[in-house]
Amino acid sequence: MSEKYILPDIKDYNTLEVFLQYGGYKIVKESFRKKPEDITDELIKSNLQFRNGSMKVVGKEFEKFRKFGGAEKILCIKGYTAGPGMIQNRGIIDINPHLLIEGALISAYITGAERVYFLVGSDEGAAPAIMQKALNEAKMSGFTGRHMRSSFFNDFACQVELHLCPPPHLNGENFAVIAGMESRRAYPVQKEYGGNFDKLWGRDVYFADFETICNIPVILEKGWKWFTGVGDKDFPGNILFPVTGKVSNKGLYELPSGSPLRNLITLSGGALNDIEYIFISGIFSSPLSGNVIDNLTLTPAALEKAGSRLLPAAVIFPGKISLTESAAAIINYYCSSNCGFCAPCREGNLWLKEKIENIKPDGNDGDNYEKIISAAENMSILSACSFGDEGGKVIADIFRQIYRGN
How far out from the chain centre does Cα 266 lie? Predict the structure, then answer.
């Protein structure tokens, strides 16, 4: 079994006391003695890529932000639940919040950000309170805020705060976060995939994600050569895989990239012979049929070649329910979670819901399949943000598979 460095099996590791016993905040102190350019160079050599789906190289992105961003910068780190089953951010908050804070401090230092905001959903149960507790512990110990200068013997200091994102899904998108923090109503204005530059209160802001940031202190502690040897050489490092559905061991698993999918299935108590199809990136990915998963590895390239995607991960085992039933469940989520701003997403999801619910029980409904595929494709193209775009693509792909099967 490979090393679990994001979610280690250590009792009470989410407390500052235990985190410090295992060398917590030591790496940030050492990093502050280096030049930001040297740390960025290590991250570039490590080939750490964002886990939010963009797969951009972190070191190169942070280097651009440092060089071309303005004098006053902000770093926003997303940790809200993007969709059903995607519990990796909640797992980080529950088990290792201080590693996340340490990674954020290093990221702020190398990019020159004066403020860091952790973005957590207001409907995430106890997660906001747990994250706030960790932030309070770090601040009281002088690891964040103005007392950083005396704690780390460095001139750099930044404020680290928690920001709650309200539902629906739109309020977790970059543009909506910015609008909400600036006390404006959130409107979808663009399709987004991964971290990017933007403006918040007139300052340059960059969006990252929890899982990616947690890798940074580990890389700097163990070295970029070690990291490039973990998992797949083209996408190195561990990945967090939430697993749910018709399996006996639901939960959150940490595996090296490039691990065989059958290993994850075995760990979660599934049986290869019983799987008709599976979702790897939750309801944002096209389903993979059971006859292609036996020799599949968990890398972005392998999943893309198979017709799906890897990140953000959320492995769902639907069991014996049909693809049509899965499509009905997915479209119900999109109907209840869209913001209602643009007609293609607002009306398109309702129209698709009605059509899917009225499919003939015998499955021989080719004319309806063609209409559903066409409408879903149009919704994907015309929706204002990535929510409608991704939903349309998934529904269209599901019914292409059903159509081919009939």
Answer: 24
Contact 276, 250 (CB under 8 A): no
CA distance 4 to 21: 18
Distance CA 188, CA 175 (A): 7
Beta bridge mates, 251:
243
Residues linked to residue 121 through DSSP beta bridges, in sequence order: 165
Confidence (pLDDT) at 195? 45
Cα–Cα dist 114/76, whole Å: 11
Phi and psi torsions of 63, nearest 5°: -65, -45
User: Is the link from the previous residue into 168 a cis peptide, with omega within 30 of 0?
Assistant: yes
Distance between CA atoms of residues 316 and 297, nearest Å: 16
pLDDT confidence of residue 81: 74
At 12 the three-state DSSP class reads coil
More confident: 271 or 392 = 392
Task: Give one DSSP letter per residue of 225-237, joined into a string.
Answer: HHHHTSEETTEES
Judge contact between 66 and 40, C-beta under 8 A: yes
> Of the candidates 150, 144, 79, which has an alpha carbon nearest to the alpha carbon of residue 109?
144
* Phi/psi at 106 (5° precision): -65, -40
Bridge pairing between strands 197-200 and 315-317: unpaired
118 touches 79 (CB < 8 A): yes
* Whole-number average pLDDT of the chain: 91
As given in the structure block, the two tokens for residue 96 are 């290792």
Judge whether 262 and 294 are in contact, CB under 8 Å. yes
